Amino acid sequence: MTTFYLVRHGRTEYNRDGRLQGAVHDSPLLPQSIADAKQTGKALADIDFVAAFSSPQKRALDTGKNIVAQFKQPLQFETLDDLKEFDFGIWDGDLATKHQADRIWQTFLNDPHNFDGSEIEAENYFELATRVKRALTQIAKRYPKGNVLVTAHALVITFGVKYLLGKDLNTIRREGLVANTSVTVLEVKDKATFELLKWSDTTHLK
What we know:
Elements: E1 2-8, H1 13-17, H2 31-44, E2 49-54, H3 58-68, E3 77-79, H4 103-110, H5 125-142, E4 146-152, H6 154-164, H7 169-175, E5 183-190, E6 193-201
Parallel strand pairs: 1-4, 2-3, 2-4
Antiparallel strand pairs: 1-5, 5-6
């Protein structure tokens, strides 16, 4: 049985500034986020991890490296492109307020089922959820027993996990995204059965 510990990266400069930060653009973690990642590592230090995976994007990888630096035993990250954040296409890096009145943005926020990213060279939610499902199922096949640490992004964790649990895309969006440096725990009982043990937990930061 594989148990995933999925951690969203810490808050970044783009998060602070309200910019769309997807698969294309990256920005540094804020100083508090580095401290939060270290605190997360201390909270997870007693867990025996068999592997660690991350999005190749620096904000996720830096979060992961600060987490595992708190462990007694070294743990090396393997990066997977399928764990990159949602691709916002030509909007990536823009201030979100720039597009608030646009019908594309409103569909992105309120009707994920019908969001067509092709107009802005972006991906859609089905593409995102499918590639994250592919990544997690491949990891589970490689590590059928044990705990696996994954550092990734808000949309990746939120939609990847809940899509595996069989939730509708529109419902997922309404329920909200995982918080920065939060821990979500997903258990893989077999190839088709998943159980959510913990969702967007930030109690370790208090």
